[in-house]
Amino acid sequence: MAGGGGPNTWRGKVLDAIYGHYEDALAALPPALAPRLLAAGVSFGFADPVTNIITNTVVCSDPKPKKRKRPATAREVLSKVVAAGNGPSPPESRTIAERSLVGLLTFVTSYFRHLSSWDALHYLYLSRADLLVAVHLVEVDRCYYRRRKDKFCIRSLAVKTALKCAALSASLPNIDEFLAGSYACAFHLKLITQIAPPAKRCRRLLSGLLQKPPVKLNKSNNDPIDLAVLRLHHHVPDASIQKVPSELTDSLRGVLMDRIHKQYLKAVSQLATKEFRISHHRSLFKAGYCYGPFSSPVSNIIVNTIWYGTAFPALQDFEVDMISTLSHVEFRSLDGLISFMRVSIPEVSDHDAMVYLLKSNLNIRKAIRMATQGGHDTSGRHESGYKAAADVSYHPKPEAYLEFVVHFLPTVRIAVRSLLQDSQTPSSSKVLDLSRLLSPLGAKSLEPIDDELTKNALERLSNFKTGFLTQQSFVCGKVKAVLRKYEQTVGCCYELCIICGVNGSVGKSTGIRHLKFQYTHANFWAMPKNGNSAMLFFAEFSNDEDSKNLRSFCHPVSDLSRHGRCCYCEFQGIRIVHPIEICWEGANDFEKMARGEHKITNELITSSGKVEDYMVGIYKEDYIYMDPTQDAKLIRIMNRATYMMSLDRVDEKGRLRELDPQQAQ
Questions:
Q1: Closest of 77, 110, 111 to residue 96, by C-alpha
Q2: How far apart are CA 522 and CA 325, in angstroms?
Q3: Of 286, 289, 324, 424, whose Cβ has the fewest other Cβ atoms within 10 Å?
Q4: Which of 548, 549, 584 is nearest to 563 (CA)?
């Protein structure tokens, strides 16, 4: 954000813009409507701020009348709109302008993932507190404008939820009245606002226009977001939407992680089920990164996965029904892509690299071309980029990968691309053909290692695997149960392919030493027995064995790009795709957050997500898939970590002995 000052400074600048809107609205409204304005005339909705204030004032029911000798003047009302100081007021003493600001912030942060209130203030400042102009700025910065189904649509459940949350946070006296007025205004928007000063708009609204049958939105009527774009160019000529401001780097990384997760879900669905569950899940975790020579991240994931599994096969197969998370390979993929960009174009910052990756849809070569066209000088070869990517993403065999991707893969690239494009879901024979194509390099790369796991490290490794298998058994049983329940509803049988994401920390928690939550959320792929294309499902089920009184269900996810929000999954930093068609535990929690009645807040969600999306180092999954015959570096790390943990336990016993000798026994 340009300029200096803290949050209160920027909050004051947005409030100044809101005060200007109230001045225009008060000049048009009859004095008799002043009590309504102070009660419910917020500046947010689907029109420009002045029209929103007028609309929300007109549709508001008359508050309890107060005895007055004469109607208040516009100046007297305006004095009650302006806040006393720069800092936020307590909820019970907020003016209507402050309540408007709270509602604006709530709408933007409820509708868009990964946006903190500070980020939202940036967009509200650029838009002069015009809600839909701010929404458009976010959409442009996140490249949502390129796909029709990603664009803002007032009929969507996400928009309706965000608007209701905004109304709740603004403490409006009648939420249903406000929502009905907002949508009625949207359907008559062009007729109300077309080349009309505030006074004329007010007369049109007072004439009962909102009670008329709604006009169907089409090109001739203009969608509210289209009118917002016109206001952007007319009122905010200095608003920069050419690139995401560097202050929004954390938000941008979260958006990119969402895009990468979508690619991994697709890749999992396109790998043959049997081979994936037996062996390819291991190589996906260890080296299935989304960077590579192909334009499609999914193709790079599949090729890197199959190559590593062929070149460095496991000592023994480890068949699974579940992948609890894909997070660590996704984090490392993004770090690899950023490093590739920065080595290829040294003057590009991490932030700018992410901007180009977003605009290129994770196509590294296209991103570099875009940066070059933007005036950046390209230096270095792709070989340097792959080396940097492999190093920063903890590739287990960086030298072998460099040899594979730079020298070997180009010789079979056409044949590989043909196999990948031949069908949406490669058959077992196609996967075998890919393995044969990519195998010649592997036999030369195996080298014996001297490192061995210590006794304590082996025990720790065994505990990791036992814990995973226990969780898998529980989750798999629950998923199969909700899938059978769904089959009875739709009259179609499905075969469970793979569970690919689990969050067991949903709902209320119980216990003190060992926390247990009410529900688990999970994604899984399932194949109709009379079809040939897998479907992604969302599941919610109770964490209790006896769950008769708690609902459990599953539902297909129709679109990986558009899905519902869940404060529990987002707070945990676990990417579970939720359907938008139904409600689940957590679906209404954003309304509780808007009322200030939830222990989770948007700031907790964004700060927790930031920590998760910047995670580096070694993960539990690394240990689960560790190969004692190949992973020398990981063996040394695990031995060291186990040794340090044993020292901590000794120190803890010593402290307990000093405090309570009996407790230390």
A1: 77
A2: 10
A3: 424
A4: 584
Residue 433's pLDDT is what? 82
Answer whether 561's CB lies under 8 Å from 148's CB.
Answer: no
- Tell me the pLDDT tens digit for each residue of 381-411: 788 999 999 999 989 899 999 999 999 999 8
Specify whether the backbone of 19 is left (phi greater than 0), alpha (psi in -120 to 50) or beta.
alpha
77/226 Cα distance (integer angstroms):
33
pTM reported for the whole predicted model: 0.89
Calpha distance 665→650 (Å, rounded): 12
Higher pLDDT residue, 168 or 200?
A: 168
Place of tokens 């009302």: 77
CA–CA gap between residue 406 and residue 387 (Å, rounded): 10
Tell me if residue 585 falls in helix, strand or coil: coil
Domain spans of the chain, in order of start: 7-242, 250-444, 455-599, 631-659
Q: State how beta strands 494-510 and 322-323 pair.
A: parallel
In total, the chain counts a number of residues equal to 665
- Kindly give, in sequence order, each residue whose CB lies less than 8 Å from that of residue 571, ignoring residues fewer than 6 positions away: 600, 604, 605, 608, 609
CA distance 597 to 633: 48
Query: Nearest to residue 608, comparing CAs of 574, 561, 565, 562?
Result: 574
Identify which of 108, 228, 216 has the alpha carbon closest to the alpha carbon of residue 159. 108
Q: What whole-number distance in Å separates Cα of residue 577 and Cα of residue 336?
A: 24
Residues whose CB is less than 8 angstroms from the CB of residue 546 and which lie 6 or more positions away in sequence, other chains included: none
Query: What is the residue whose two structure tokens read 């798999």?
Result: 476
Tokens standing for 640?
């060291």
Q: Using a CB cutoff of 8 Å and minimum separation of 24, what contacts does 487-494 make?
A: 492/528, 492/529, 492/530, 493/528, 493/529, 493/530, 494/526, 494/527, 494/528, 494/529, 494/535
Give the tokens for residue 173. 């006296």
Residues 45/50/51/52 CA torsion (nearest 10 deg):
20
DSSP state of 280: I
Which candidate, 551, 584, 553, places its Cα nearest to that of 481?
553
User: What is the CB neighbour count within 10 angstroms for residue 315?
Assistant: 9
First to last CA, the chain: 58
Residue 308: φ, ψ to 5°: -65, -40
The encoded tokens of residue 248 equal 């929004």
- Enumerate residues 6+ apart whose C-beta is below 8 A from 637: 618
Pairing label, strands 494-510, 535-542: unpaired
At 598-619, the pLDDT tens digits run: 999 898 888 877 666 666 666 7
296 in Cβ contact with 402 (< 8 Å): no
Q: Which tokens is 359 given?
A: 């605009």
| Tokens (6 digits) for 71 | 């109607």
Structure tokens at 665: 């026994």
**Distance from C-alpha of 368 to C-alpha of 385, rounded to nearest angstrom:** 11
- 553-556 sheet: strands from edge to edge: 322-323, 494-510, 516-528, 535-542, 553-556
Q: How far apart are CA 369 and CA 380, in angstroms?
A: 14
